[in-house]
Amino acid sequence: MSEINLPAAAEPIDQVGLKVLTIVATLALLVTAPFLASEYWINAIIVPFLILSLAGLGLNLLTGYGGQLSLGAGAFMMVGAYATFSLQLRVPELPLPLALIVAGFIAGAVGLAFGIPSTRIKGFYLIVSTLAAQFFFEWLFLKFPWFYNGNSSATIALSRGLSFFGLDANSPHGRYYLTLGIVALLTLLSFNLIRGQTGRNWMAIRDMDTAAAVIGVPVFRAKLQAFAVSSFILGIAGALWAFAYLGSASVQSFGLTRSYQILFIIIIGGLGTIRGAYLGAGFVSLLPLALDWLFQHLFSGHVDAGLLQNIQKAIFGLLIIWFLIKEPEGLARLLSLRRTQGARRRLFPS
Amino acid sequence: MTASAGPALEVRNVSLSFKGVKAISDLSFQVTRREICALIGPNGAGKSSLLNILNGVYTPDSGEIVFEGEHFRRMQPLEAARRGIGRGFQNNALFSGMSVLDNVIAGLSRHSRVTLVEEAFRLPRALGQERAFRDRALEVLKLFDLEKYAETLVGTLPYGVQKKVEIARAIVAKPRLLLLDEPLAGMNAAEKQEIAAVIARLNRELDLTVVLIEHDIGIVLKLAHHVVVLDYGRKLADGPPETIRDNPDVIAAYLGSENAEAAA
């Protein structure tokens, strides 16, 4: 048995020092980012990247950790956005952060309801249930003007803008810090759940649900918890997408394409890892930009712009396929350099 | 406990069929408290199906299970775990994406008392439980000499080690009845002796009632206090190992034909 590589029990001091340094540097970078980047970068790239990461994180808890396939990410984001809109409109006393939390709970409850079939059906069949959520809410929020307050364009926007307990958060910097704060907090809470009993229950169900039930994992409860927590996070991500990124949103902002996008993010980034959501979101939000930049420099003026756009989309799709063949476990795996880190990664998800 | 007077487990007239094919027909036997009961019989005799009925994975067509004086027409997996029935599977059913330690701690799930919110915010109760679970799991790993693998991803370990991890997971929550499906399969002679010794020790020191399926007759006759022989879903023989060894039906149906194999 000597061939088994055991993960190192303790890290050498210099590595620990390096780690602390990395964390401090990352924190400093996050806090000062708005002053280093242009407004365009903050508004159009960094903020949506953070929100997509959060949505990826939410779906990853359900699909990557809980093993429950879902194509309803867009629906739960939609519920969060419309709930926030309604709360801000009809309960103006409620400050935005609290409205976000309540909207998260509403999305969580909706997710729980659509998760009930998961106790009977699995895998591809479960996709049908989550797809039902997708189509149902697209219909619901368009059909009844109450949800968008009878607005002629059927869009939702916060009339009083964004504020954080009296602080104005409408500027690009404000939006950035609001988003960053929420994303960081929810990432930390998810991380705590994952390394505790809840995370173990989810992973046990993902890896072998019959055995999980037999050894005493409360499968029914744990699955519903996964749906509720995942939808809670997705709901808040949806509200941020609508009001911190887009400004005004409609049902189309959370269509099936969005659900696919979030699913791609976690597949590309790495199912069952926290950082996978960030890596995947980085991939889907930065790669098109990089392609765009490249094409601008190579072909601008020579080829029709519309054609270029389509070629970019095709290349983006091909890259995803190529990448999944090369590294089915996602970017997170690709970045863990040593084999033995595999064990540590699952143990201390990062 | 009043129940301690009767048998730990009683199978009464249990029948099971899959799409019309009888797997178990009208099977009855008793398992006395603190004994090791071995189920033997050729492949397809219904042994694993019976264990699956005992902890609620399958529902019998008829008959009932009496566990510690309580009658069950059908058991639910979670209910079985709550009542103290532990289980090891034939082909390791470990959680391959988790470490050895996490696999074993998962066996303690039903004792978890902390809420989601307490865990998300790492409140004292959640931290305390986590520490207690960890200590208990390490204690059990020590029993199997597995502490050094605690942080290893379970899927990367050799089969024999995984087998031990699975037994560790099954007993970590201190079950009163332990069901083991071929715990010695795929092991070499030394490993078999080691696991058999651990099972005997658990049985003796923790007063654990054990029902196990095993093909290695040599070990079964030494380890078990009570042997039930199944063939085509029927009970062929039932008694202490000495009488089983000399039973002509058993020799004809099972020992005779597979003697050479078992000796090899």
Give short descriptive properties of this protein.
heterodimer; A: 350 residues; mainly alpha; ABC transporter involved in vitamin B12 uptake, BtuC; two-stranded antiparallel ribbon; two-stranded antiparallel sheet; 14 helices; 4 strands; globular; disordered N terminus; disordered C terminus; B: 264 residues; alpha/beta; Rossmann fold; 2 domains; 6-stranded mixed sheet; 4-stranded antiparallel sheet; 10 helices
Largest interface: A-B, 38 and 49 residues
Q: How many structural domains are formed by the residues of chain B? A: 2
- Strand tally of chain B is 10
Low-pLDDT windows of residues of chain A: 1-11, 338-350
Rounded mean pLDDT of chain A is 87
Can you give a write-up of this model?
The complex is a heterodimer of chains A (350) and B (264). In chain A, strand 2 and strand 3 (167-168) form a beta hairpin. In chain A, 72% of the residues lie in helices and 2% in strands. Chain A has 14 helices and 4 strands. In chain A, helix 2 crosses helix 10 and helix 10 (256-269) packs across helix 11 (274-299). Chain A has a single domain, classed as ABC transporter involved in vitamin B12 uptake, BtuC (Orthogonal Bundle), CATH 1.10.3470. Chain B is of the alpha/beta class. Chain B contains 10 helices and 10 strands. Mean pLDDT of chain B is 89; it is low at 259-264. Chain B is 40% helix and 23% strand. Chain B has 2 domains: 2-84 and 175-263, P-loop containing nucleotide triphosphate hydrolases (Rossmann fold, 3-Layer(aba) Sandwich), CATH 3.40.50; 98-173, no CATH class. The chains are: A mainly alpha (350), B alpha/beta (264). At the A-B interface, helix 6, helix 7, helix 8, helix 9 and helix 14 of A face helix 2, helix 3, helix 4, helix 5 and helix 6 of B.
Sum this structure up briefly:
Chain A is mostly helical and 350 residues long. Helices cover 72% and strands 2% of the residues of chain A. Chain A contains 14 helices and 4 strands.
